Amino acid sequence: MPHTASGRPVKRLLLAGCAALVLGGCETTSSGGPKVNTEVAASSQANIASLSDVVARNPQDPQAYNTRGSALARAGKYKEAMLDFDTALRLDPNFAQAYANRGLAQVSLGQPQLAIADYERAITANPNYVAAYVGRGNVYRQARQFEMAMNDYNRAIQIDRHNAEAYHNRGLVQQAQNQHMFAVEDFNRAITADANATPPRIARGYSYLALNDPKSALDDFNTALATSGNAVEAWIGRGQAYEAQGDQERAKASYARAVQVSPKNTAARDAFNRTGGKTGQTYNLMN
């Protein structure tokens, strides 16, 4: 595990490519559990209802089932989504997108081997389908099968040299292998491809910490927090960057905010306690 200049471990950020699907439509409560954002949930339900009307009018259209399945998956209804993807593939056995979408749902259901099989079917149906290579690479990365993950990300980038997700996830593999200079280069490419992407900025911040560059790390964490204020990993990283600079008060305030955002996050709680944080005390973030 990489360390900061102060010798404290840097918690690596290994964000799955499917995180947006898993977390979309939720926010963190003060108790640390997921709370459905009622406006987003209502919008999602309305969208699913509308898509169900489309399916009813077009019962032989595989795209209609695939689209509704994607909406169901975004709403966390993975088993229902699987039924729609199954129907889409029964109607069109060469539907690469439906295979990849079903693979992503399999990941969310804790079935990585079935996910790999679906991504492979997607690639067979369309050898240039970038999302399938990235999706399969993510499964391999999460299983720490880094060589196979790198092969998939490299192939995705070969097909689409502007794919931010492929660069980001390839950077995560290099970060996990303590190859932080290479990781930073890939995070740079991901940010160039998608300037509004928050995950590669957070990940780059952790690699900067491992490279003993807390100033650059702090810039990344603050930029990420400007658009994603509840990103607990960014608050933790911000605290570590301030600690590396010897600023204990700002570090403590950052950890306090991390605990407020995610009270059950062990890394946030441990850092807060380690720096002398007191429950119930007010801390000034001093941006």
UniProtKB/TrEMBL annotation:
This is GlcNAc transferase. PANTHER family: TETRATRICOPEPTIDE REPEAT PROTEIN 6, UDP-N-ACETYLGLUCOSAMINE--PEPTIDE N-ACETYLGLUCOSAMINYLTRANSFERASE SPINDLY-RELATED. GO terms for molecular function: transferase activity. Keywords: Repeat, TPR repeat, Transferase. It comes from Terrihabitans soli. TPR repeats lie at residues 62-95, 96-129, 130-163, 164-197, 232-265.
